[in-house]
Specification:
The complex is a heterodimer. Chain A is mainly alpha-helical. Among the domains of chain A are: 81 residues, no CATH class; 80 residues, no CATH class. Chain A has 11 helices and no strands. In chain B, strands 1-2 form a two-stranded antiparallel sheet. The longest helix of chain B is centred in the N-terminal third of the chain and has 34 residues. Chain B is globular and about 70 Å long. Classes of the chains: A mainly alpha, B mainly alpha. Chains A and B meet through α2 of A and α6 and α8 of B.
Chain lengths: 258, 407
């Protein structure tokens, strides 16, 4: 078939095509002709090279300033602390969890000091009571757990040990127990000075423990003629303190206090 | 921080049982309720229109073009709640530039575009082409230019061209029915495929969505027809209304049966979630699920239309009953969407507690925004009715019924 014939066939096909089809096709052609270049213009050149995102996004992320040093570098200078931590319950924690980003400090320890959280607000981020924390995870209610005291007063954050559950008198009289623990009276059991009825445990205000009501009670250890250790402080029975009971001047739970 | 606490504090008081900390606040709010509601109206209105063309239900002719324009007005608004919810609407077109085949939500953009461009606009164009050419010949000014542009400067009014229009409308409608099913079935599919959520995860979800869409679409067109006709000082076509009510009734029966089937299936299956779901349905969702969705939105309108069908009710009372029923159906279907979207987020993944939904008044996710989004389709519809009058015999006094739409 020669060219004029082909052209006339095409012309007749164009004439037979409904007007609607022509116009809608034209619209479609314009849309595609606009969309395709616009699409290639708008899509970043490296889109889809690796996944459904710009490949250069990885480089942009990699170029970001590094703040964290990683915990292995801490070991170079603080091996003793890292060793302690590795033996304790915090062995799973990275140093920077508590001390913050350490890249600058690792670069130049003199120029950049790390954060040391000493206030009460930090530890409860993990240890405040929350029903959804795993069973057995150490949790406290910070409002009633030794309020006003920083956590590090009692707990070593590099080697936290589970607190000993208070028993007997200490359960309620924790402050006295802690005071006595650092006094010379540390080995004297509470019941030696306080006769405590069994009901006191159930109804403490109705059934109160006794207190030593005469000077001779303390004198059993502290009079000059008393038996016992030589290092125990001694006093003269007749001249020391005259009419007063001992605990009116001396605090028995921390007698060395002035 | 204080703002966050002030926001969460009233929610914390309403928590029942045990929930995980990240479940206090719902991620999908009222905007995501509006989205399936509006999409459902689109699909329903289109399926109603297709009854005229494909199934040749002549009585519904007066609502044919009205249904198409209603579907278009609501379809234009359908993505807006999503854009408002997601933020950065200026980036939304990017899902078309770099289609992500792994994401059901991203691919929905193409379903939407297909339905808008290849189905709805095409059908409206073919159906209106003849009238628009005639209107443009007798008009002046911007209106004339709009109509000329709308017809793509077409001018062929020959019998051959009109016959081609009619055949094209028929073809597009036939393609349109599965497309409408796809459009709303897809919304149900997205919810139904969230397998971690026992309230959503159900294979029945796309089908229930679809039939509730048909119910809501028919009821909406019925409402619009009953409002617009008296405003135009015209007599309502009672045959058309009766037929609309019949289709509404049948669609509601199927929808009701499917919902009951889903309900019975869940109870009989009694998976581990049944306890918390029962607590949800009888507690936090009792009013919106049992009272509004089931009683007010389903049983009352079903009963009202059944009364009309069983007893000879005078035309005026019939109109009133139809109007009230269609209105109640809208309330019921909106409540259905609320119960699905919000209800599915009220219970904890622990299956041991319930949280609460608190809607704000102002803000992007607030009540005022929702009302604006629900009113916007009616504004668009008003403009469309003005530019492309769907009723024959009016429209600057020039219209004669197009042959295609009389068939």
């Amino acid at each position: 078939m020669n060219l004029p014939d082909q052209l006339s066939r095409l012309k007749s096909l164009w004439t037979r095509t409904p007007e609607q089809t022509k116009r809608l096709s034209l619209l479609l052609v314009i849309f595609v002709a606009l969309f395709l270049p616009l699409r290639s213009l708008l899509i970043p050149a490296d889109f889809g090279e690796i996944g459904h995102y710009r490949a250069s996004a990885l480089e942009e992320n990699a170029e970001q300033h590094i703040h964290y040093a990683g915990q292995t570098i801490c070991f170079d200078c603080h091996d003793d602390i890292v060793h302690t931590r590795n033996q304790g319950y915090h062995r799973g924690l990275s140093c920077e969890m508590c001390h913050g980003p350490a890249a600058a400090h690792a670069e130049d320890p003199g120029m950049s000091q790390l954060r040391v959280p000493r206030d009460r607000g930090y530890c409860p981020l993990c240890h405040e009571y929350l029903a959804s924390r795993p069973t057995g995870f150490p949790q406290i209610v910070s409002a009633s757990h030794n309020p006003l005291k920083p956590c590090i007063t009692c707990h070593n954050p590099h080697d936290p040990v589970p607190p000993e559950t208070p028993r007997d008198c200490e359960a309620c009289h924790a402050a006295i127990a802690r005071t006595k623990a650092i006094s010379h009276h540390v080995y004297i059991p509470c019941a030696r000075c306080h006769e405590t009825p069994e009901e006191h445990r159930v109804n403490p205000r109705m059934f109160r423990p006794s207190k030593p009501m005469n000077r001779d009670f303390c004198g059993e250890c502290h009079y000059t003629d008393a038996a016992g250790s030589e290092v125990t402080q001694r006093v003269e029975r007749d001249t020391h303190g005259a009419r007063y009971v001992c605990w009116q001047c001396h605090y028995p739970h921390l007698p060395e206090a002035k | 921080m204080e703002d966050v606490i002030n926001h969460l504090e009233p929610l914390l008081r309403k928590i029942q049982g045990y929930i995980y900390p990240n479940e206090i606040e719902l991620h999908w709010g009222i905007l995501i309720v509006i989205y399936p509601y509006v999409t459902g109206l689109v699909a329903g209105a289109f399926i109603l229109a297709s009854l005229v063309k494909v199934f040749d239900v002549k009585e519904l002719q007066p609502t044919y073009r009205m249904s198409l324009l209603t579907a278009l007005a609501f379809l234009l608004v359908a993505p807006l709640p999503l854009l408002a919810h997601l933020g950065h609407p200026e980036k939304s077109f990017e899902i078309f530039l770099t289609p992500n085949k792994q994401s059901a939500m991203a691919m929905f953009g193409f379903v939407y575009a297909w339905y808008l461009m290849a189905v709805l606009l095409l059908e409206i164009w073919f159906d209106y082409r003849r009238d628009v050419i005639v209107w443009a010949q007798n008009e002046r000014g911007p209106r004339r230019w709009f109509h000329r542009l709308f017809s793509l400067f077409s001018s062929d009014l020959s019998d051959r061209a009109l016959k081609f229009d009619r055949k094209s409308v028929q073809t597009v409608t036939i393609i349109g029915i599965p497309s409408a099913f796809l459009l709303h079935g897809y919304v149900g599919f997205i919810f139904g495929s969230v397998k971690a959520n026992p309230w959503w995860s159900s294979v029945l979800m796309p089908i229930v969505f679809l039939f509730s869409a048909i119910v809501s679409g028919i009821a909406l067109v019925m409402l619009i027809y009953m409002l617009v006709t008296p405003m135009r000082r015209k007599e309502m076509d009672m045959r058309c209304l009766d037929k609309l009510a019949s289709f509404l009734f049948y669609a509601m029966i199927v929808d009701f049966s499917l919902e009951i089937l889903d309900f019975i299936h869940r109870i009989y299956e009694s998976e581990e979630s049944i306890g918390i779901l029962a607590e949800l349905a009888s507690g936090k969702l009792f009013v919106s699920l049992v009272v509004i969705q089931l009683l007010i939105g389903m049983i009352l309108p079903l009963g009202a239309i059944a009364v009309v069908k069983l007893f000879g009710v005078p035309a005026e009372l019939r109109r009133l009953l139809y109007f009230v029923s269609a209105l109640l159906v809208q309330v019921g279907i909106f409540s259905t969407r609320y119960n699905v979207v919000v209800g599915g987020q009220l219970f904890s993944k622990s299956l041991r507690g319930l949280t609460s939904y608190k809607m704000t008044i102002v803000g992007v996710e607030g009540l005022l925004m929702s009302i604006a989004l629900l009113l916007l389709p009616f504004v668009i519809l008003y403009i469309l009715f003005n530019l492309l009058p769907p009723w024959t015999g009016t429209g600057r006094g020039l219209m004669t019924p197009p042959e295609g739409s009389q068939k």
